[in-house]
Amino acid sequence: MSSLVVGSVALDTVETPYGRADDALGGTAVYFSLAASLFTAVQLVGVVGDDFPESGIELLRSRGVDLAGLQRRQGETFRWVGEYHHDMNVAHTLDTRLNVFETFHPTIPESYRDAEFVFLGNIDPELQLEVLRQVRQPKLTTLDTMNFWIERKRDALTEVIQRVDAVLINDAEIREYTGCYNVLKAASQLQDAGPRYIIVKRGEYGAILFAGDDIFLVPAFPTWDVRDTTGAGDSFAGGFLGYLDRCSSVNPPDLRAAVVYGTVLASFTVEDFSVRGLERADSAGMHERYGRMAAITRVDAAAPTVQRDLVREGV
Amino acid sequence: MSSLVVGSVALDTVETPYGRADDALGGTAVYFSLAASLFTAVQLVGVVGDDFPESGIELLRSRGVDLAGLQRRQGETFRWVGEYHHDMNVAHTLDTRLNVFETFHPTIPESYRDAEFVFLGNIDPELQLEVLRQVRQPKLTTLDTMNFWIERKRDALTEVIQRVDAVLINDAEIREYTGCYNVLKAASQLQDAGPRYIIVKRGEYGAILFAGDDIFLVPAFPTWDVRDTTGAGDSFAGGFLGYLDRCSSVNPPDLRAAVVYGTVLASFTVEDFSVRGLERADSAGMHERYGRMAAITRVDAAAPTVQRDLVREGV
Q1: In B, which residues are within 8 Å of A243 by CB distance?
Q2: Residues B273-314: pLDDT tens digits?
Q3: Digit-coded pLDDT (tens) for B214-264
Q4: Looking at beta carbons, which residues of chain A come within 8 Å of B62?
Q5: Nearest Cα to B292, choosing from B264, B312, B271?
Q6: What is the pLDDT, as a whole number, of residue A306?
Q7: For residue A301, which residues of chain B lie inside 8 Å, CB to CB?
Q8: Per the count of CB atoms within 10 A, which of A60, A65, B266, B273 is most buried?
Q9: Contacting residues of B for A262, CB less than 8 Å apart
């Protein structure tokens, strides 16, 4: 039982209408690891500079995250500066400094190569392919991507898409990649290219899972205080893969539960800046929100008027 | 058992990326009536000019809609000209000609005044108040509104909101009216003003019902071909109130089922221009979609990891 994540480890400076954080712990691999570690053993592959705070390392270690694949280089850690307005579905990037991430190549330690669940964070699709060449027999490979790669590395991205089992993508991106506005059609087109599972992330509107012929629509967990949505998608991925790894299964019911846990982990993340919301997440709180998700979405399959006789005669 | 609707009867000219319709049957009262008539007897209050096509009258009659409250005036029927781009959550108005609707005052026929379920379509809140003064003991009064009235008739709108049982409103509008971006907070603020039930419509992302402390989130019915979203909200209202009227109940489980039927009726409407999609809706198709809504949203309350022992020890 182990989940491997390859992605950015970052120091983020973020401003939203609800506050700001400076050079705070962030990045795909960090959010993913903290979320997935509630379920399973996580193996992290990424790179940091010599300015990376020891407290970040300690936090990951305290959650049992294996850092054998974390490269340490001279220079500065990847930095992202962004802001959100009231519509926190949309991040506005003010500055991106790749720093040590610019020359990063993922080297998968021997001890990671039998990982069963593999998450290819939103990095250059050519690096994602490098990861796939190094792992042996994963049960489930999943990729995330973004408009930057869709526009600049489309061929490489298409090659990764053809090789992975699952694609996590947001609605604007799947529309851009497929050229298809209707999300059902776009997902169907993407499934035809290879991946058995497509998860479309819709920010505050939740997510859609396409698994074979099964479609599952789930709202975001309703949150009273959304302060910073950075890392929500990566936390979703961590909850999703971590849960599946824990079950050691990718059956449709487990996939649905995994999407709900992804949603729940994302909800903790958005409640505070950086990883502070996720740090507060524990198994009791997580299960409480899972149960609440079941309650607030419950449609009674046997509603009274489903019986024909309740409907107006002669229509 | 009867549902009363007061609202526009219109001839709409609409263009979308999927086609267009010219001077086609539309308006709140028409969409509402066709949807609600699948469940109950509908009483319509509105106005048309002498150019209104007899086929429109016949269609409403064929669904058993009572037209005693439909005023006929010399002049032209209300006309709306609009277009949608790919994002069909947003209508772009090109022209609005109120015509006979400009001087409309709702006169509720004596035979309508005992209506149990009352829908105040999106009209001047002062006219909505006129309606409330004429009905006797409705079980549930519901209003819809729009940005135009929020900006121009805020005091009158607030007075109606304080008097109705339920408010149907879209997410942009509830944010504008309350000045509160978070929809949970906005709905709570609106409930404090009086209405027991708030239904926030989110277009392709579905709807949220706030009923006392109960929150229910439901996605839109996933539709492969969305051709024209005009009338979706009014069809939702028709399905919602029609269902409750049929049950003669406003218990929480019935409210949830009513929201699902609203969602289902809206899905028929968006599949074609004007009322053509709604004309094709029948009880079998409606129940089939209701069942499908239950299936595609089902979250297993007893997912394996909800059992504590499946979660990583020591976290």
Answers
A1: 305
A2: 999 999 999 999 999 999 999 999 999 887 655 444 444 444
A3: 999 999 999 999 999 999 999 999 999 999 999 998 988 999 999 999 999
A4: none
A5: B264
A6: 44
A7: 291, 294-295, 298
A8: B266
A9: none
Residues of A whose CB is below 8 A from B300: 253, 256-257, 294
The verdict on A305 touching B (C-beta cutoff 8 Å) is yes
Interface residue A218 vs chain B (CB under 8 A): yes
Query: Which of B202, B253, B223 minimizes the C-alpha distance to A206?
Result: B202
Contacts of residue B162, defined as CB under 8 A and 6 or more positions apart, other chains included, come to B193, B194
Residues lower than pLDDT 50 in chain A = 306-315
Fold adopted by B3-310: UDP-N-acetylmuramoyl-L-alanine:D-glutamate ligase (3.40.1190)
Chain A segment 95-124 residues within 8 A of B by beta carbon are: none
Contacts of A103 (CB under 8 A, 6+ apart): none
Q: Which residues of B touch A225 (CB under 8 A)?
A: 182
Q: Which residue in chain A has the smallest CA separation from B310?
A: A246
Contact B290 A306 (CB under 8 A): yes
Sorted by where each begins, the domain ranges of chain A are 3-310
Residue B196 contacts A, CB cutoff 8 Å: no
Using the beta-carbon criterion (under 8 Å), do A217 and B222 form an inter-chain contact? yes
CA end-to-end span of chain A: 56
Q: In angstroms, rounded to a whole number, what is the distance separating the alpha carbons of residues B124 and B109?
A: 20
A68 interfaces chain B, CB cutoff of 8 Å = no
Contact between B220 and B267 under an 8 Å Cβ cutoff? The reply is yes
How would you classify the pairing of strands A42-48 and A19-26? unpaired
CA A216 to chain centre: 17
How far is A112 from chain B, CA to nearest CA, in Å? Answer: 19
Per the confidence metrics, is the pTM higher than 0.90?
yes
Q: Which residue type is seen at B102?
A: E
Check: complex ipTM more than 0.95: no
